[in-house]
Amino acid sequence: MAEDKYLAALRESIVHLDFATIETAARQAIEAGIDPGTAITQGIVPGMTIVGEKFESGEYFLSELVVAAEVMKMGMKVINPHLKQADRHIARKVVIATVEGDHHDLGKNIVTTLLITQGFEVIDLGVDITPGRITDAVKEHQPDILGMSALLSLTMTKMGETIENLKEAGLRDRVRVIVGGTPVTPEFADIIGADYKALNALEGVKKCVEWVTPGKGGQ
Amino acid sequence: MSVFLGIDTGGTYTDAVLLNSKRGIIATAKALTTRYDLAVGIRNAVQAVLPDPMPDIQLVSLSSTLATNAIVEGRGSQICLILVGYEPHMVADARLERLAAKKNIILVRGGHGVDGKEQQPLDIKMVREAVRKRASKVAAFAVSGFFGVRNPTHELRIRRMIHRMTGLPVTCGHELTSQLDAPRRAMTVALNARLIPLLQELITSVSRILDEQGINAPLMVVKGDGSLMDAQLALERPVETIMSGPAASVIGALHLCDEKDGFVIDMGGTTTDIAAVHGGRLILNHEGAEVGGWRTMVEAIDMRTTGLGGDSEIHIDDGGRLGVGPRRVVPLSLLVAEYPAALELIQSQMRETPGDDTGRFITRERPLKPDQDNISPTQQEIWELLGNGPVPMTSLSDGVKTTSYFGYALDGLREHGLVVSSAFTPTDAVHVLGKYRSGSTEAAELGAELWGRRLGISKESFCERVVREVIIQAGYILIESVLAEDGDFSLKNGDKVVNRLVNRALGAEDGGNLSVTFSVKRPIIGIGAPAVTYLKPLAAKLNTPIFIPEHAEVANAIGAAAGAVVQKVRILIQQPEGKETPYRVYAPSGVRDYEALDDARSYARRTVVRLARKHAHEAGANRIKLQVSEDERIVRVGADLLYLGTEIIATAAGRPKLKERRKQK
Amino acid sequence: MPEMTRRERILTASRGKRADRLPFFHWWRHCQLGWAERECRNRGMGMAWARPSYTTRLHDVSVTEQEVVSGGVTVFRKTYTTPVGSVSYDEQREPGTGQWHGDRSWLDVTPWFTQRLIKEPADYAVVKFIVEHTEYRADYFPIEQARDWLGEDGIVTDIHPHTPLQTLMIDWVGSEGGRFFIHHAKYPDLVEDLCQAIAKSRLPMYEIAAKSPADVILCGDNIDGVLVNPRLFEKFFMPEYETMASILRPFDKLLGVHMDGRVAVLKDLIARTPIDIIEALHPPTMGDLPIGEALAAWPDKVVWVGFPGSVYALGTEATKKAALELLRDVVPGDRLAIAMSTENIVSNDNLRMVTSVLENAELPLTPESIDRIEKSIA
After folding, report:
1. Judgement on whether residues A105 and A50 belong to the same structural domain of the protein
2. Burial code of C116-132, b = ≥16 C-beta within 10 A, e = fewer?
3. CA-nearest residue of chain B to C310?
4. Chain A contacts of C232, Cβ < 8 Å?
5. Are residues C370 and C236 part of one domain?
6. Cβ–Cβ under 8 Å, residues B630 and B192
7. Which tens digits make up the pLDDT trace of C168-219?
8. Do C181 and A127 touch (CB under 8 A)?
9. What is the pTM of this model?
10. Residue C37, strand partner residues
11. Residue A70 touches chain C, beta carbons under 8 Å
12. What digits encode the pLDDT tens for the residues B596-632?
């Protein structure tokens, strides 16, 4: 019962976007002896899931989504040092980036946050990332999924270049590639050898979830 | 009217067939493949097939599972692998240390980027040093550069240097494929280089045999896509002969029967191969053929190959479950046929309590070359214990000092092709059941009894179980292939229930309350010696017609003689710097930039056509027909038309060049 | 009835009355002077010129600009030093910046921020000081000059900066990585206090505008509903538009706001604002609200459409099709004007194609009259 109280506090802090309470909630949970893995999977992640649902239903906007992710990060900062090594790699990983020459990060940030709401560990490389750096990140982090975003038709070709780099490095078969951004079409995604073109943030994240769900195309 | 001689070797039997371009098959012959020296079997088969008087033979083609078998069994020569601009992890990623000794894998600074630009200058000094040190220790060199398919200049420089310094064969990555994937390219060139001396040996032998017989027609070798290439070219690209046996047999099977659609199942001594055929054409695997767990970058017939055949090793696990394959061993019946003294060895084992090692024998396969075969002390001990005939495993394992390394050490010797195992096989089982006879039935019966004891059953029921197990395993592969034809459908992704239902359909599991019946909608074309034994019952189980064409037992050799020469060249054009910048042609001679797409295209077209014609000519084609296709990738992207590149592919095809016919008298 | 001048046509439509023809015009800042532009103007295209009615002066703030290398790229750093501390921002400029006009490069690209003015909580006080020490002075010369030059060929609009919250979100704090939202959630007092200070400092600017010779006062607010969500719009934007309108109305000025993003989510709230002209509205796919639907939702407002650059890039046939589609969507064509572009330089061919469709768009539009227009071009 006591455990529920602490987990609920974590959840509530995130759902209410409360910077003031999240750190305390996290600290108290750890001090009360709650397993750090449980604090994440049953406190923080359900909180983010609720935020994701509210975004989907139109109750929350992008601003709430972004802020919730920030609140979550503060909580994770407290909990992470207590995590057992073995628990750190439970989450399915996504590496995400806006490609070289492109400074748009809105869509990418929405996707990042929505992925977190679904329990993914997201490594956000940021904007204007070269194909070489994305390839290195895939090598280093060995994610399940690579997400790339481009909003300019001029920078879209960098997605293809990145996939060619992944292929040459022998990494293409180890990661699913999803691409997104207003100008990106399914035909383009197909030609450059991406696995999927997200119609929008929500739909793209659903695809990612499907990919990592056993029996639904998950490995 | 022309006369062709087709030869297929490498499997249990070496086949030869004499084909007449108008009247079909003139003669066929079979001889046991002699693994210690393929030439013996080839000579026997060729001698047997030639009628008297000998017709004027215009073409000899050879299909061989030599390359496939060597890869599957881990055999090959010592090579030096030079990797330009590679990262160290790629060596592990592609398991390259299994293909070349660690000290012979040289990572050199250099390589290119995705746009064909030099990433780092080539460290030619280091290359020179490495080549100098290893020239005397290896049989061939393999070279692959990072993005070498976009710009091969570093590979080409290294090749020139090696040629100047050593005269040893060199294989470059860009010659074998135009596809990206540096680790897999390295693996493919390494496999290629390892195979060169093996293939050299074979071709030399065959040429000698043809000389002996007074045949002086051009010699062609079958590629994995079913087409032919001149033997000289095959020496440079032996890896392209992987899958050549299966490809030839599918072509041969099609040649022999009228079916244009179905599943061709070739069951041999070592493997079972399944290929789907559509409209009479082979389907190629553009992802690259996989052999022995190596996913190469060689475009070959799309075929499922499993280590399941007449000579597959039988094993019994702790639960008493029977398994067949994937390793090929020499059947006991054949062992005794070759070494009659071995019969006594088997008999002597009847007195022992049977264990995992009983009924297994090891024989030296080839002489030890101390300068090239680096073997461990334990391996040395084993080697010493082996004399000139088979030795029981039990006495070997008792004879070495460090018994814990025994299995590991023995596997190493097997992988290097130094020794070969013998054990009970399906071939032995059919000897016992009286369905087949080519070796010592006595040996087979003793083996069956020995192995049956471990399960506590009679030799007959043991043999029936072996045959049943082969049918079930073949059934699994067939169902996999059938489902794969239906799209993204694989038993591997299936859950337990699916697998159990398949088991029921194949009779591997008793029906319970739900019996399952499958019917495969397209016929099976069965070829290979054991086809009748295993595939007929399988077809009955799966409710599908089966054709086992006459002469199917020599389908490989027929396919070899019936093939054409086909060479393909691809060139890519891209605009790497983006819109309104030059178009770059990635040609095998290096990159070239053009301001206008039209100019880039016409240069690329000229180049592919020239190269395809040249390659086809080198491959031995006559009356070459060229076909050029262009895949221009332009997408409409919101506001823009985005140019993503053009791939130009030239296919040059022709009939093999024939020897000029003797003047009609 | 004599034919209206281009200026009359735009203003009549903008005041919600029916003009003789559908007004269409080109913004000077994207306009290619030359033969095609002259031909189109001879065929009825008007001109619109945005010029400010004020100048600003900073008191007790010293401003320096230097070129520095930051993160491997050369940026221009502008530093504001005040008695309460200093703040700075970095911007990157592509070659040729400032040579086309304003701070635009030859490719019509404006500089972009690499470091924002407000980075941390302490910066708010400094920026507030700057805001409170910004003086707005009337200077009607630019507008008067442009009016004199254009005459009846078009209109001059007064141009105003982003409203206070948008100034923070787009300019000073920035929205990369959701930074503004995070600031707003973490330091709501600092953000809202600064917003109020900006709003207060702008009052003189509105009063200057009310007395300016321009007929239309344009607030370049760049509204996009994904970033400016309905809650923010209602709390921070609508009151500011009310303030502007209350100052401008007595002087018979029209208030226009630049809304070039996805505004469907804000549709009902926009209807409740006192804005007269929704400027730069883009039809789908660049926007997400069809023009006909927007006009129906906002019965007392006028729409100035921004002809989308994405259509232009598909070529003249697509441009013709889109222009005709637009006409069919807005029948009978009241409360509407069409800008050739609000974002891009337009090619000569496209400019002439849109002109060919619009030059004969007599009001009221009917399906038949649009069919006739289509035939006349084919």
Report:
1. no
2. bbbbeeebbebbbbbbe
3. B639
4. 63
5. yes
6. no
7. 999 999 988 789 999 999 999 999 999 999 999 999 999 999 999 999 999 9
8. no
9. 0.69
10. none
11. yes
12. 999 999 999 999 999 999 999 999 998 899 999 999 9
